[in-house]
Amino acid sequence: MRALTGAAHSVDLECGQNICHEGDLCSHLALVTQGSARVFKLAESGREITLYRVEPGECCILTASCMLSGRTFPASATVETDLNAILIPGSQVIRWMSEFETWRRFLWDLLAGRLGDVISLVEEVAFRRMDQRLGEYLASYALNQGPVLQTTHQQIAAELGTSREVVSRMLKDFEQRRLLRLSRGRIELGNPEALRNIGAQCD
Questions:
Q1: How many CB atoms lie within 10 A of CB 201?
Q2: What is the rounded average pLDDT for all residues in the chain?
Q3: What is the spatial distance between Cα 140 and Cα 66, in angstroms, rounded to a whole number?
Q4: Which ranges of the chain have pLDDT less than 50?
Q5: Cα gap 62→49, rounded to integer Å
Q6: Reported pTM
Q7: Which value, in Å, is the radius of gyration of the alpha carbons in the chain?
Q8: Which 3 state secondary structure label does DSSP give 115?
Q9: Helix (H, G, I), strand (E, B) or coil at 68
Q10: Which residues pair with 12 in a beta bridge?
Q11: Distance between CA 97 and CA 135 in Å, rounded?
Q12: Exposure check for the chain: N or C terminus, fewer CB within 10 A?
């Protein structure tokens, strides 16, 4: 802890603020203490897909890997909710890997978790239909946050790596089947379990 406080400093970032872009050099590693950041891949077409989020007590493992390998950042990151983080210089990140076992274990555990997340994402994109993925996304939101989503079709599309038009079309179909109700910037989920099983219903 003394090494951390001596080498790092705190920073506050606002919701919507860009943290880094694809191709940037990584000079500091941010250890999040409050709020969250979203790490995503952006295509030339403008479509996005969320890779993972960085929550309190975590850091961006892609940033750490870039520091250790000397490579540039392979994705983009933005502040999702107002964020406070401790910024650790890249030179310290590298040095601590050889000096502190607890630091090594912390980063390796994060790496293992993120690798599992990305493999699951690849499986979702490659092997599941978009209606199944959308139904699962909505059902999971209802389970964790409640039956009302304050979001846009574009934001959902960015989560799932598809276009706004595809999401809008599928949501309208779900509404016609009385699984949810749509209004501007708002989705009310009427039957989360049916949404979770939407793939089986559509086969």
A1: 13
A2: 91
A3: 32
A4: 202-203
A5: 16
A6: 0.82
A7: 19
A8: helix
A9: helix
A10: 84
A11: 42
A12: N
Separation CA 130–CA 136 (nearest Å): 10
Let me know: does 44 contact 94? Beta carbons within 8 Å: no
Q: What's the CA gap between 166 and 131, in Å, rounded?
A: 9
CA 77/CA 80 separation, integer angstroms:
9
Copy the structure tokens of residue 127: 């092997």
User: How far apart, in whole angstroms, are the C-alpha atoms of residue 96 and residue 92?
Assistant: 6
Take residue 158 and report the two structure tokens written for it: 């960015």
Rounded Cα gap, residues 161 and 181, in angstroms: 23
Q: Of the candidates 69, 68, 66, which has an alpha carbon nearest to the alpha carbon of residue 26?
A: 66
Contact 131, 170 (CB under 8 A): yes
Measured in whole angstroms, the distance separating CA 187 from the mean position of its chain's CA atoms is 21
Q: Tell me, what amino acid is at 10?
A: S
- Spell out the domains of the chain, with CATH numbers in brackets: 2-127 (2.60.120.10), 130-202 (1.10.10.10)
Nearest to 55 by CA among 121, 113, 116: 113
The answer to whether the CB of 75 falls within 8 A of the CB of 45 is no
Query: What is the Cβ-side half-sphere exposure of residue 9, based on CA atoms within 13 angstroms?
Result: 2
Q: Residue 42 corresponds to which tokens in the numbers above?
A: 């952006």
- Count of other CB atoms within 10 angstroms of residue 147: 15
* Residue 2: predicted pLDDT: 57
pLDDT for the residue numbered 203: 46
Instruction: Determine contact, residues 146/182, Cβ cutoff 8 Å.
Output: no
